[in-house]
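Attaching the record inline, Q. Sequence:
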Amino acid sequence: MNRRDAIKLAFGTAAGVSALQTGSLFAQQSDAKPTTAGDTIYLNPATGADTNSGAKDSPLKTVAEGARRVSQSGGSGPMTVILSEGVYSVGETATFKPARRKFTKTERLTIRAEILPDDPEWHTGRMPTLIHTLPLTGPRAKGLIFGMTTETSHVTIQGLKLLGAPVVETPKPGTLIRVYPIGRMGRDLDDLEIAQCLFAGDKVTNPNHLGILAHGSGIHVHHCVFYNAKLTVVFWTSGSRGHSMRSCFVHGAYGSGVWTTEIADDFEFRDNVIANGNYVWTYQSGASAGRDPDAGARGSGTATAPEKQRVRYKVVNSFFAANKKMASSGTGANLGFRDIDSSFLELINTKVSDEPVALELDETKKNYLHPVAGSEAAKIGAGLFLKPAA
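Structure, as predicted:
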């Protein structure tokens, strides 16, 4: 089975693109109805068991079981999956795909940490930590690993730490083992918010190939940190609308800091810092993506330059520092890239510098793995915190 067939078998196919645009999802959630006890599922990796009820005093153990409970649910109204602090071994893909329940902008499916970064009791050790240990067999064989997929609209994922897989990324020529912590395959889906999450990896011990790989419209990634991941976010459906990437800090991306597959020019990209990495931006043409529907997820070893005028994007109030190159064309997970002109990016109040960004490496500080306080990069305000530091 080739990798394209593996993805089709695992997730099915979907057609059509929703053009619905979403606004500030946190603001919208303030109007949501309170979640009832039966619609809140608790997880605890130390004290939980997947045979438990999922109540606060009877938590589940794994994210995959939490996803099954959501997928089996019926009725209406919001649902929340709450992860306590601790280490979760992700041994199977958690697929959130309810068939008998629909969510809305204000009545959402939320998958979040129990304690969030702006809580006064939070420190980095309280982040639920997901490490990917899935077997490389079955329909996702040949090195394709998804940690969780959200095959429904109106989802928020908040406050998690997502690590790579403890494998060798390229154990032999032509083989690439890659982990995608968060995925969404439905082209007709809309409104996926990923906030205050830390995606971290190490190229040798636990490579994190790609934090977020998502089809559909309305993908909103904000206040996230990407530390030493190969790739951060792939906005995957050509022509889709309503996307944003805001207040994110990307450090040491050895692929690129953001990947767009010819999404619409309403892409809101602001208040981001991309530093100390390889490429800042990868642009994949819609024609290339159409010929190779899983190009963002498999290695073709080739790069195809866009054949028509590239969609232009505004880059607002951001900072690009000490990256090797500005822009590339791309297809394929093996990064068969080539340099392209970056004139498709309109830089507005955005600085490009050759000076590296210094990281805060004191683990006891709240801004651990953020730009050092007071630095030029720190003034952008990118990172895990919604509220400015006191």
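The longest strand covers residues 144-150. Helices lie at 3-11, 25-29, 63-72, 286-291.

More tomorrow.
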